[in-house]
Write a structure and sequence with these properties.
The complex is a heterodimer of chains A (about 290) and B (about 250).
Chain A: H1 3-27, H2 33-40, H3 42-52, H4 57-82, H5 86-107, H6 115-120, E1 130-133, E2 136-139, H7 142-158, H8 160-168, H9 170-175, H10 180-202, H11 204-221, H12 225-250, H13 254-282
Antiparallel strand pairs in A: 1-2
Chain B: E1 6-15, E2 18-28, E3 33-37, H1 44-51, E4 58-63, E5 66-67, E6 75-78, H2 92-98, H3 101-104, H4 112-124, H5 140-153, E7 158-162, H6 170-185, E8 189-193, H7 197-203, E9 206-211, E10 213-219, H8 220-223, H9 226-232, H10 240-249
Classes of the chains: A mainly alpha (about 290), B alpha/beta (about 250).
The structure holds adenosine-5'-diphosphate and magnesium ion.
């Protein structure tokens, strides 16, 4: 298969997984948590490398899961104990963990672990590193990305009720006997896994873009939670596909172009929806919600 | 012997070392409509959250004679409207259906039976035909009714409602009061944080007067006195009528 096709497959898989967990983050108003986690997981990645001698792959995803749980639990403790807002607690924890990762990286000096590669992966090169699967040479990165995507979809389907309640009204969920705290931390750990599996291939900038932009775009056109996630995946995968094609055509950065296309999608829908809202308001309808 | 619906023993709640609830002892028998009154910041919401285990606290709380974690499926909760994200992509029907989730447990999905329960609850609060409306696009009264419908769908025996009448129109208030009467007549106990002192004495059976400490609790006729009101509201008022008049104008 052609390189461009593999690039599209890698890009859409990563984008789909990111946009799914991104929906939860955006709904909980924690969108920048994705950025925080993508930094905080560094010590997990380095530790995985120090133990296995391998960059990326399943050890890295596992390391990220552990540090991801650690990040959200520590941030929660800081938030509860000191009374600083949730995002400030996260800020404290993720910068500390990132710094720890940088120090660990120094200890691993002399090896071929390059922080630029860990954090900014190159999607253009990802299809070149292949492994045989049933006789077909498949980009190695898909061996983690595809299972991570399937696990993400599976968990959301299996725990849809609990995720829905936890995202919408965690206090009511707990009162009704749903383990909202457990679900929340589990989704954040999943987010860490998705982020690491993805940015090995597509880079952290694109990961953060795909976590936030497609869910926000989808939120503009749907008022129902169970439509939000499929629509976010739709926007994410079309942005990944369109971005790859345009980048190949214009010979520019693939990851950058994917993020740009996602941004353009958002911009277009924003323009359309504000025109519709404007018309509604001029007809005297109440188009906007009264806020929080 | 039937245990009290709510039994609170030496309940203390602190937020970052600030004491919000101080040594609350309380026992309430049901079925009853119980008003919880006190000034802003008195800790009324915190009291409900402490009972429900939503905030860390010390002391013992028993609901229907058991620890709260064993009776969650028999409890309904209506949070204060400020805590709701009105932009969230859910419809009125979705919210009502969510009330059935707690009883379903892990892995089971809501089916036809749950949808029917949710629909019935929406009818009971007069929201027929609004099932598909996003919750941010409702009036204040309709929003409050939606969350009442979710609580009804929990099919609970004990309800905790945090200011369900805040910001609602007169017709919604009438609907809510009728609903409260129905619930009590069906043998349930409803705790309602309520700010309108005019309706406390006429519509509730019992009252809990709270201002960081428990000032008084018991049957309306014995407890809802000028002296207790003065203590609860830090002596801002001289007479009961004045307190009631004031509660009507400040909201
Ligand atoms: N999460 C919180 N963290 C810190 N302080 C809080 C928190 N929630 C409430 N408080 C404080 O606790 C006190 C009681 O609040 P609350 O229970 O909401 O009172 P009420 O519902 O009676 O108006 C208030 O002074 C409030 O500022
Ligand atoms: Mg309150």
């Amino acid at each position: 298969m052609g390189l461009t096709v593999w690039t599209i497959v890698i890009g859409t898989t990563a984008a789909a997984a990111c946009s799914l967990v991104g929906c939860y983050l955006v709904l909980r108003r924690l969108s920048l948590l994705g950025d925080a986690i993508s930094h905080a997981v560094l010590p997990g990645l380095v530790a995985a490398f120090l133990i296995t001698g391998r960059v990326g792959g399943w050890p890295a995803v596992l390391g990220a899961l552990i540090v991801g749980v650690l990040t959200s639990v520590l941030a929660d403790i800081v938030h509860r104990r000191t009374g600083v807002p949730e995002d400030a607690g996260l800020g404290v924890v993720f910068t500390s963990l990132f710094a720890l990762g940088v120090v660990l990286l120094g200890l691993a000096d002399g090896t071929d672990l390059d922080p630029g590669c860990v954090l900014y992966g190159l999607i253009e090169l990802a299809p070149l590193d292949t492994a045989p699967v049933f006789g077909l040479e498949v980009p190695r990165t898909l061996l983690t990305l595809v299972p991570v995507l399937l696990i993400t979809i599976g968990l959301f389907v299996l725990f849809w009720k609990e995720v829905q309640l936890t995202a919408f009204d965690p206090a009511h969920a707990v009162a009704a006997g749903i383990h909202a705290g457990l679900i929340h931390h589990a989704v954040l750990a999943l987010t860490a896994g998705v982020i690491v599996a993805s940015f090995e291939a597509v880079g952290s900038i694109l990961v953060v873009a795909m976590l936030v932009v497609p869910p926000v775009t989808a939120g503009l056109i749907t008022r129902r939670l169970h439509h939000l996630m499929p629509m976010a995946v739709f926007f994410a995968t079309t942005a990944a596909t369109g971005g790859t094609l345009l980048a190949t055509w214009w010979n520019t950065s693939v990851a950058g172009m994917m993020a740009v296309v996602a941004g353009v999608q958002l911009g277009c829908l924003l323009a359309v929806s504000s025109v519709i809202l404007g018309e509604r308001q001029s007809r005297g309808e109440r188009g906007v919600s009264p806020g929080r | 012997m039937v245990p009290p619906v709510l039994e609170v023993d030496d309940l203390n709640t602190t937020y970052q070392r600030r004491v919000v609830l101080d040594a609350i002892d309380l026992s309430v028998d049901g079925p009853a409509l119980v008003a919880i009154v006190g000034p802003n910041g008195a800790g009324k919401s915190t009291f409900l959250k402490s009972i429900l285990g939503l905030v860390p606290c010390t002391g013992s709380v028993r609901v229907l004679g058991q620890p709260i974690d064993s009776v969650r499926r028999r409890i309904g909760y209506v949070p204060q409207r400020e805590s709701v994200d009105w932009d969230f992509p859910v419809s009125v029907g979705d919210v009502a259906l969510m009330g059935t989730y707690g009883r379903l447990g892990w892995f089971r999905r809501p089916g036809a039976a749950e949808r029917r329960v949710a629909q019935e609850c929406l009818s009971r609060v007069g929201l027929d035909g609004l099932e598909d409306r996003q919750i941010g696009r409702l009036s204040g009264g309709q929003q409050q009714r939606t969350f009442l419908a979710r609580a009804l769908a929990q099919q609970a025996d004990v309800y905790f409602m945090d200011e369900p009448m805040a910001g609602v129109d007169a017709s919604t208030q009438a609907v809510i009061f009728d609903l409260l009467d129905e619930l009590r007549d069906a043998g349930k106990t409803v705790f309602v944080v309520h700010h309108d002192l005019r309706t406390v004495a006429s519509r509730f059976d019992r009252v809990v007067m709270l201002n960081r400490r428990l000032i008084a609790a018991g049957p309306m006729a014995e407890v809802f006195t000028t002296e207790n009101l003065q203590q609860t509201y830090d002596s801002q008022f001289v007479t009961l009528d004045e307190a009631i008049a004031c509660s009507a104008t400040t909201r």
